[in-house]
Fold these 2 entries.
Entry 1:
Amino acid sequence: MPRRKKVDEPTEQIKKIKTPPLIKGMKDVLPSDNKYWRTLLDSLTRVAIDFNFQWVDTPLMEKYDLYAHTIGKNSDFVKKDLISFTDKNEKMVLRADYIPAVTRSFISHSLYNNTIPIKLWFGGSILTQGNFYESKHRQMYQMGYHVYGVESPAADVELVVMLYQTFVALGLNPYVRVNSLGGLTGRIEYAKALTGYIKSKRSAICTECRGQATRDPFKFLACANQKCTKQIEDAPQIVDYLSESEHSHLFKFLEAMDEVKVEYEMDNSMVHEFGYYNGTIYSIYNRTEDGDDVLLATGGRINYLSEMLGGPEMPACTISLLVEKVISEIKSKKVEIPRMKSPHVYLAQLSEQAKRRAMEFVEELRKEDFRVVANFSKDGLKSQLDTATKMGAKVILILGQKETIDGTILMRDVESGIQEVVNIKKVIGEVKKIIYKK
């Protein structure tokens, strides 16, 4: 029989380009950060479940008016930080903040008809031009919680305690700053008084605050310029413009904070720049040795937000955080993050037939709530056993071609070193004996 002529394989011509650089202001999350993301997101998820919050999510694209109306059309955030574009003659934006978006969804789907309180939590990417947040990142991961339908400060305290205790458990040193923004009437009167004060100090404050005295006097209270910080101490305080009910809400909130032993301090100059906040507001900071405390989470009353977006009158409060900022603080404090839990079982396989059976058997093991690892890209037994040892598996199961045919599996108890052949139908029971023997 003539030999078949050897034919060279054609060479694939792959069109190459230079690796596109990361867009300025964007950041990749790498495997080295996995333990920080996993620990924080797991903690925030557990809190949501423990406190009976329901998950919601919103699209990455919203109408421009959603943010212009709720945050403030003339605010720096809306004018400079939204990523906007026109689609079919309609102005759109990429999601820049979950809080208005979640309330828009709350109204759109008539969730206000659900049983009070309505407790929602959310999380995902927000995208901006990178000017507003200190990190200068254009994409960040926001997580937070809403409570709708409760006027009582007990709802606010619950939100604060949830995150305060989470931060303590993560090894941080949190405390809470508290203030009140009052209601619509009181805030208008306060803004007039503050504008008058700023104008009376024109020569003693920074140029930017002088220019914004009429348009946005609250910017003055957040100014970090040394000229302004000296003058802020003597500025009018909004607590003097609160109504009786607003005073009562703030006082009861502080009383409850004392009862739950959450460390806090009043900060009469604290303002949340987004226009949808009113009444009692709060921010959680991490205390640092150099006194340059770091903001971890922001929240407060959003009692008007539903009505602002065409929904029913609905008292509400919220709190949210930026995951990257919290992780950065955890890293800077060199907080010890626990390693991922070791697998209960490592399943090794030694042939193509065994590999196919192992793929099925992995799912059978996972249904029994075992943490199972198998690497189907490896064929050599030694490399698989080395991996199992490094990962700290308690049981190693080895499935070869002979075992597949016989309906058996080789089981090794790593701690005792005992190894035996077990009927594959009985191996789950045998694994349980080893895992739960202590």
Entry 2:
Amino acid sequence: MSPAAGRQLLDADEARVARASRELTKIAAALVSRPMDRDLHERMRAFLDKESEASLASWDVLLQRTPDQLKERISTVLTVQALRTAS
């Protein structure tokens, strides 16, 4: 099997942090235009109740990586992404 096929691009911690970052960015942007929207506040509360602890734990894992480990992960992710795009 090629490196581009059949495997996740990000590890579990990377994926969790990426999902949390996207969701929090969406919530923050929406709060700018709709700061008193009750549904939006509920969405934010739900994220904090269900996702924040695991996301913060994953963030702590990523912070423990050395610069060399981070460079290696970036290289691996970019290579796999390029292979997937090329196929």
